Amino acid sequence: MSTHPIPFTPDLAVKPEVVAFFDEPTNTISYIVKDPNSNACAVIDSVMDFDYASGNIAYDGADKIIGHIRANGWTLEWLIETHVHADHLSAAPHIQSKLGGKLGIGDQICVVQDTFGKIFNEGTEFQRNGSQFDRLFKDGDSYQIGTMTAHTLFTPGHTPADMVHVIGDAVFVGDTLFMPDGGSARADFPGGDARTLYQSIQRLLTLPGEMRLFMCHDYGPNGRDIQWETTVAEERDHNIHVGHGTSEDEFVKMREERDSTLSMPKLIIPSLQVNMRAGQLPPPEDDGKTYLKVPINGLNTSKDQ
Ligand SMILES: [Fe+2]
User: Fold this and answer.
1) Buried b (16+ CB within 10 A) or exposed e, 28-53
2) pTM over 0.90
3) What is the tens place of the pLDDT at every residue in 140-195?
4) Which CATH superfamily is domain 17-281+293-300 in?
5) How far is the CA of 73 from the centre of ligand 1 (A)?
6) Distance 265 CA to ligand 1 centre (A)
7) Cα–ligand 1 centroid distance for 285 (angstroms)
8) Of 22, 30, 37, 249, whose CB has the highest number of CB atoms within 10 Å?
9) Where are the domains positioned within the chain?
């Protein structure tokens, strides 16, 4: 069961406006979270358009988010990354360059930067202290979005640096959970751990049952339409991986067996190199152009060992 209690009291009277943007190529949902009592908002988990085959990048998806914020006269105060994503590239620096705001991630980003700094043989100019971000969150930290107080919950397991953000009655779970019929995210990336993920999920499920949960991904299991919103109570009762009192050992066995069958996400190699730099591309080389690396047999996961 949960070992660490929730270190704050959620304020369910605060009901932020949540606008979702679905990125079809990566099945990612980005959010604008807007304070009902001011013009302030935050953007959670934005997506850069990246065509691996051509090496071309674009910002059509991120520009829709920017357009929505501008059209409503809102002020962007925060850009949040729930974790270092392995399946899409962040557009946070692009949005920040247009609208301002501070970029935040969990402080365990340093562990992720250390791991992937080695895997990609980054030189000493690649800082592994999280300094590319404006704010590094610890468990139970808080920050303001206008009149709303947002709280962070450290929820490792999928990666070592996942943070869930609790804003009024809305909870942005990142990849800690999927919709009830989707279950949970994989825990086999470097630094991931199924047992740790189970404990993080159990902690999350001690939040009040009526709280709204917003997913970072949905794959429309069994042919259903894409969905991204559920509640704590729905997850407790119906989640196919952790609901109905599934034990830790049952979960770990299921998760590890399932992960051993999954291939790597298509964009993991470019995603990690960009997202560990807070969404910035690597510095240009001596010809002034920017390159990404492919480490041959370098991305060892539990599947390969
Ligand atoms: Fe993820």
Assistant:
1) bbbbbbbbeeeebbbbbbbbbbbeee
2) yes
3) 999 999 999 999 999 999 999 999 999 999 999 999 999 999 999 999 999 999 99
4) Ribonuclease Z/Hydroxyacylglutathione hydrolase-like (3.60.15.10)
5) 31
6) 10
7) 29
8) 30
9) 17-281+293-300
